[in-house]
Write a structure and sequence with these properties.
The complex is a heterodimer.
Chain A lengths: L1 H39 L6 H5 L16 H33 L5 H7 L8 H26 L2 H37 L3 H9 L4 H30 L2 H6 L4 H10 L4 H26 L21 H33 L6 H34 L3 H10 L7 H18 L1 H10 L2 H25 L2 H9 L4 H12 L1 H17 L2 H6 L7 H11 L3 H30 L1
Helix pairs in contact in A: 1-11, 1-13, 1-14, 3-6, 3-8, 3-10, 3-12, 5-6, 5-12, 6-8, 7-8, 8-11, 10-11, 11-15, 12-23, 13-17, 13-20, 15-16, 15-17, 17-20, 20-23, 22-23
Chain B lengths: L2 E12 L2 E12 L3 E5 L6 H9 L6 E6 L2 E2 L11 E3 L11 H6 L7 H15 L14 H13 L6 E4 L10 H14 L4 E5 L2 H7 L2 E4 L2
Parallel strand pairs in B: 3-8, 3-9, 6-7, 7-8
Antiparallel strand pairs in B: 1-2, 1-4, 4-5
The chains are: A mainly alpha, B alpha/beta.
């Protein structure tokens, strides 16, 4: 009897934690259920137009032109393929150069190569458009005069796709670079030395030993890149590329058909699941255990003078093209607009964007702590599963979450109009919920990693001193986790500040953020110098964030 | 007997500290030497200098009369068994052994792998991966991998320190047998007197 009551008591004690995890999981998974349910509904009027091939009486082969939907899919696939190839070459290549060799300035180059993360893709797109405008025009004229107008039209299409792939790769290669750099860095020096002693040179050692061993890390970085590519809206719109994401926006804005937008989302989610499946397969089944003994990490070979010059040229070249050049252009553009500008509106914008981001961070961090702590104190498989489901949002593009929440708003308007008004119009609750679903994983990962480093005996010691789990969390864990928090908050803050598609869809119409203001000035009004001011503020904010993170990481190491 | 390795007056400082000071050593054909000493006495550094993974500040290394002091590690054809064995975790036992045989024709390669597998008694685990093997088996794979390219000598860095103490004597005998059977001269670096006694023909104490 006593045993029974004890057990019941324990269960009751766990109930609040379990419930909160379940609520988060259900909330995070609900967009997928919603998409599934919505696809069962009858199609709307314009869906036929979107999905049907277009008759083309002029076609020499008698074939129809592809449907808009086919164009969206082709556009997305082309972006994915191009970005995969380019980010792998740039990211893995640079990571190998700064890992394999030990030379002066290696730390500096490693930092420089991460900085493009601070430039939002839509800013990168506009700056490259500006930089290459005259070259494009002269080339276009040249092709038209030397070949044919048709060839010039083809040239325009090739140009736009190439530029889009370049812009996305320049923005996203740091994900691959960082993942590959960490993987190379953690490889035991003994593997590489064994390979050399067995008669293999540097190149052969890279291909046969370093690269296969780094594969899981590189694939994880690449997956992140591909998910970001799928999520991309601003740069695609600015460069005139039609993808599934821009398709969702057209269905919603041009045709005013949410059901069609959700249908496109469903197709997109299938593609995303294929990407995630590929990740599982490519990561490999074998888990390579790291070395049993504390084998020394590989610090790199001393290169010859010529090799050092080569590494500097390559890495500095990459950094110039992906960071220095676009930022220089941005500064120049902003300087054009600054003199005759009243800066007060920008200051207000900074404050309101930051306030929004702070509130979103707060909600996400609370949810992340709840999840990570519950996983720790109740290590059951279904809690783990719920936590995994809760993090799914990172794979769901912002545009999809946006239209799903819009549909929810639509149905709420019928049943509970006041509530809908409150969530989506008079407050930013809806937007913050959407941010939370999308960015929960970003906040969760550093916090969970921090929790893992805390010895479980501390929990037991605190419990044996009569403290409740909540007290233990506040008095023991949270103080120990402050570095992890700071890291999580900074990354989240920067991510939320830069976020575009969700904010465009769900942001209250009278309430711009730095991101939507930048995009609005760039895309809709083509006022590049004016837009460059909020864009520059965003870039500087992100750079500061990166600075804080890298200082934190360095502190941890020492 | 011919001399395989002659190291003369090797000096090396690491981080401002002199690790090796005019150290000399000769290794005869088919001989097994144990370098005995406490950690930090420079024995592993000496091994790395012979393998070509470090360059000495002073002195020369000769193999069968040829000066190889400045030759790259990958050109030396010297076998090296790491303390933690450093078996490539993504390759099977066979692949690990083949890895050093890239200069040979396919048929020769296969013949040599079979020969080495037999010598080390690893035929049955040839298709397995390092993490599926016991510590003693991993050690033999590391030895087989080092011996496969018929190196002029093999260097072993604390080869028994990672192994179960109760099995060590048996494994020491096995390693000696394999080295003797393949007529490969070897230098074993160790801090354990028993390693020196049971494996080596000659012991050099470093301080």
């Amino acid at each position: 009897m006593r045993h029974f009551t004890h057990k019941t008591f324990n269960k009751l004690r766990s109930l609040p934690w379990v419930l909160s995890v379940l609520v988060i999981a259900i909330l995070a998974a609900s967009p997928l259920f919603f998409i599934y349910k919505e696809v069962q509904q009858p199609t709307q009027e314009m869906w036929g137009f979107l999905a049907e091939e277009i008759e083309n009486p002029d076609s020499p082969t008698g074939e129809n032109d592809p449907s808009p939907l086919q164009n969206y899919v082709t556009g997305s696939l082309l972006m994915l393929a191009g970005v995969t190839v380019l980010t792998l070459i740039i990211g893995v290549g640079c990571a190998w150069l700064v890992s394999a060799f030990r030379f002066r300035g290696r730390a500096l180059l490693s930092v420089l190569l991460c900085l493009p993360m601070a430039i939002p893709t839509y800013v990168m797109a506009v700056m490259y458009n500006e930089l290459l405008m005259t070259s494009k025009y002269s080339l276009f004229i040249w092709v038209r005069e030397n070949y044919s107008p048709a060839a010039a039209a083809d040239f325009s299409i090739y140009w736009k796709f190439t530029l889009a792939i370049l812009v996305l790769s320049f923005s996203f290669y740091p994900y691959v670079f960082i993942a590959a750099r960490m993987a190379f860095k953690s490889q035991s020096a003994a593997y590489l030395e064994s390979s050399r002693v067995l008669g293999h040179g540097l190149g052969s050692t890279f291909l046969k030993i370093s690269l296969p061993l780094a594969r899981p890390g590189i694939i994880a970085g690449l997956t992140l890149t591909l998910l970001e590519t799928m999520n991309e809206f601003g740069a695609m719109k600015i460069l005139g590329i039609e993808t599934l994401t821009t398709g969702i926006f057209s269905a919603w804005l041009d045709f005013d058909e949410l059901n069609s937008a959700v249908r496109i989302s469903a197709i997109m989610m299938v593609l995303i699941f294929i990407i995630l499946l590929f990740e599982r397969l490519l990561r490999g089944r074998r888990k390579y255990h790291t070395h049993r003994s504390s084998a020394s990490d590989f610090h790199g070979l001393a290169p010859r003078k010529l090799t050092t010059a080569f590494i500097w040229t390559v890495c500095l070249g990459v950094s110039f093209v992906t960071f220095i050049l676009p930022v220089a252009k941005l500064v120049q553009q902003a300087a054009l607009a600054l003199p005759d500008r009243d800066l007060q509106p920008y200051l207000d914008l900074v404050l309101s964007s930051s306030w929004l981001a702070v509130r979103a961070c707060f909600v996400i961090i609370i949810a992340a702590i709840l999840l990570a702590y519950t996983v720790r104190i109740i290590p059951k498989w279904w809690i783990h599963l719920s936590a995994k489901i809760s993090l799914l949002g990172y794979a769901i593009p912002g545009a999809i979450l946006g239209v799903v929440l819009l549909s929810v708003k639509g149905s709420l308007h019928h049943s509970a109009d006041d509530l809908a008004q409150w969530i989506f119009h008079s407050t930013v609750t809806g937007l913050i919920i959407a941010y939370a679903i999308r960015f929960l994983a970003v906040g969760y990962n550093p916090i969970e990693a921090g929790f893992k480093k805390i010895n479980p005996h501390l929990d037991e010691a605190s419990g044996s001193l009569g403290k409740s789990r909540l007290t233990t969390l506040f008095r023991i864990h949270l103080p120990l986790l402050r570095h992890s928090f700071l890291a999580a908050i900074v990354v989240l803050f920067v991510d939320v500040m830069k976020e575009l598609p969700l904010t465009l869809i769900l942001g209250p119409s009278n309430n711009d953020t730095l991101a939507t203001k930048t995009y609005g000035l760039f895309a809709a009004e083509e006022r590049i110098p004016e837009g460059s001011i909020p864009a520059l503020i965003l870039v500087v904010t992100s750079l500061l964030g990166l600075l804080i993170i890298s200082t934190l990481l360095n502190k941890k190491r020492s | 007997m011919d001399t395989t390795l002659t190291a003369s007056n090797i000096s090396k400082s690491l981080g401002g500290k002199t690790v090796l000071d005019h150290f000399s050593l000769t290794l005869e054909e088919s001989e097994i030497i144990a370098l005995l000493g406490n950690s930090g006495c420079g024995k592993t550094t000496f091994l790395r200098i012979v393998a070509g993974l470090e360059t000495p500040d002073n002195g020369t290394i000769q193999i069968s009369g040829n000066d190889i002091t400045l030759q790259a590690a990958e050109k030396r054809n010297i076998g090296l068994v790491f303390q933690d064995f450093a078996l490539f975790p993504h390759m099977s036992v066979k692949k690990n052994i083949v890895y050093g045989l890239h200069g040979l024709a396919r048929s020769e390669r296969k013949a040599r792998v079979d020969e080495v597998l037999q010598l080390t008694g690893l035929e049955e685990v040839a298709e397995q991966y390092p993490h599926q093997l016991s510590g003693g088996q991993q050690q033999r794979v590391a030895l087989a991998r080092a011996l496969a390219p018929k190196p002029s000598l093999v260097l072993l860095d604390e080869p028994f320190s990672n192994l179960d103490a109760s099995r060590r004597d048996h494994l020491r005998k096995r390693v000696r047998e394999i080295l003797k059977e393949s007529h490969t001269p070897a230098i074993i670096v160790t801090h354990d007197q028993a390693d020196a006694d049971l494996v080596a023909d000659r012991v050099i104490t470093m301080s």
